[in-house]
Amino acid sequence: MADTSRIGLIGLGTMGAALAANIAEKGFDIAVFNRTTQKTRDFAKAAGDLAPRITPCETLEELVAALAPPRAIILMVPAGDPVDDQIAALRPLLDEDDLIIDCGNANFHDTNRRMAAGDGPFLGVGVSGGEAGARHGPSIMAGGAPAHWDRVADIMEAIAAKHEGAPCAALLGPEGAGHFVKMVHNGIEYADMQMIAEIYGLLRDGMRLDTGAVADLFEAWDRGPLDSYLIEITAKVARATDPATDKPLLEVIVDAAGQKGTGRWTAIESQHLLTPIPAIEAAVVARNVSGRRAERAAGEALFGPAPQPVEIDHATLEGALIAGKVLAYAQGFVMIAATCEAHGWDVDLPTVARIWREGCIIRSAMLDDMAQALGDAPGENLMRTPHFADLLKRHHGALRQVVAQAALHGHPVPALASGLAYFDAMRTARGTANMIQGQRDFFGLHGFEHVNGKTGQHGPWAG
Ligand SMILES: NC(=O)C1=CN([C@@H]2O[C@H](COP(=O)(O)OP(=O)(O)OC[C@H]3O[C@@H](n4cnc5c(N)ncnc54)[C@H](OP(=O)(O)O)[C@@H]3O)[C@@H](O)[C@H]2O)C=CC1
Ligand SMILES: O=C(CO)[C@H](O)[C@H](O)COP(=O)(O)O
């Protein structure tokens, strides 16, 4: 096998196959390998015009031999042990300057560990956009050493989505910075999806809209300030029919959401950092609750169904989603900033907003303004930047209406409610934690700070 391919890829699943075809289409010779050989053969057979650029390999040795040194090999396999196992199998076959690029949804702590191991050049690269994005232009969030990124930047930029001609791909920082940003991207994705699902619930159970009317509404919203990929596909999902039953597809999909870990990791990490991201956390919790189907049914049998009819005008629902979305993104950006500080990384938030503008699942027209706002006010919470503060001033009333009406009529809207609670808490100069400090001191003599500035103070119960 001639060592002529520019790059290798392991893992021809949903994402790997699409990414490999994208790479070949952009003119780079690629060698591919998959654990199950038949998949490699099927991929090569289906390659059509791209076949001359693709070298299918049936062993790792063949893959390594097919690559021009210094080699670069993408891993597109499930996060966790499969990545470690694949690295362990590959490294002995590679030269010491050959580069392994993990393009899966790795936990960034694992990426930090793999880089620190010093077994050879390594990049941790988050890829977003699902199968279609991987095939035609994803958003690419990389972490690692600039010298390693430079070796494959031309490929990554060629295959990435473009926004106004600029590639949605960037080296965001050292170590696991790319996988960290992808993780927070997914956390925002969870919140965005959950808020949309909550509004869908109000339309379905509160206002008795059929799926066609739901689709019409989301299509209309996609032409306004909410213009985004998730709103667009929400309309398409609502419009779809189940071929087996001819019913609306949404009626035959079980109401229990799956999850692969990135949302949960975001929530866990935020707790370690003491950085509040309640809308994202609420969305993770909502997925966990969704899985408790038998318990929910038992609750309904005991207490009666919660959701009651409610009338909320469409403009108010739209305004609530606008405010909720801004607050979810604001929480995600604050979390990225906090982590950068903790790890000594210097991830540029406007760059993150720009490379999310196209290709990724949370792409949204609002990200243009977010990139601008974060650039104009470095270090500021997005919710206090002039443009988004103005949006929140205009729409927090709608969010409040929706959360209040939902609560009064028994509709669970945890992400919207958490977004609102965050907004209210972050605009309340005098909070209520003085009571908590008093209680802590009462039962544990933990001490409190006096308003006169003296710390380590105690109440009259001490001593
Ligand atoms: N699907 C999506 O929308 C997105 C997924 N990702 C991430 O991309 C990665 C791949 O996801 P996706 O393509 O959806 O997954 P798929 O399940 O479609 O494919 C997984 C691939 O990994 C291979 N594989 C699985 N386990 C092992 C193992 N232990 N050792 C070697 N190879 C293995 C499979 O090979 P085999 O054929 O032998 O089973 C298959 O080729 C994941 O980290 C995922 O989180 C990132 C962005 C979006
Ligand atoms: O990374 C992605 C999108 O950006 C993947 O589709 C991921 O699987 C989504 O997360 P989950 O499966 O937990 O919903």
From TrEMBL:
Organism superkingdom: Bacteria
InterPro entries on file: 6-PGluconate_DH-like_C_sf (IPR008927), 6PGD_dom2 (IPR013328), 6PGDH_C (IPR006114), 6PGDH_Gnd/GntZ (IPR006113), 6PGDH_NADP-bd (IPR006115), 6PGdom_BS (IPR006184), NAD(P)-bd_dom_sf (IPR036291), Pgluconate_DH (IPR006183)
Annotated metabolic or biological route of this protein: Carbohydrate degradation; pentose phosphate pathway; D-ribulose 5-phosphate from D-glucose 6-phosphate (oxidative stage): step 3/3
Keyword tags: Gluconate utilization, NADP, Oxidoreductase, Pentose shunt
Recorded GO MF terms: phosphogluconate dehydrogenase (decarboxylating) activity
6-phosphogluconate dehydrogenase C-terminal domain mapped to chain residues: 178-462
Catalytic activity field: 6-phospho-D-gluconate + NADP(+) = D-ribulose 5-phosphate + CO2 + NADPH
EC class: oxidoreductase
Subunit details: Homodimer.
Family membership noted in the UniProt record: Belongs to the 6-phosphogluconate dehydrogenase family.
Role description: Catalyzes the oxidative decarboxylation of 6-phosphogluconate to ribulose 5-phosphate and CO(2), with concomitant reduction of NADP to NADPH.
Annotated PANTHER family: 6-PHOSPHOGLUCONATE DEHYDROGENASE (PTHR11811)
Protein name per Swiss-Prot or TrEMBL: 6-phosphogluconate dehydrogenase, decarboxylating
Annotated source species: Jannaschia ovalis
Lineage of the organism: Bacteria, Pseudomonadati, Pseudomonadota, Alphaproteobacteria, Rhodobacterales
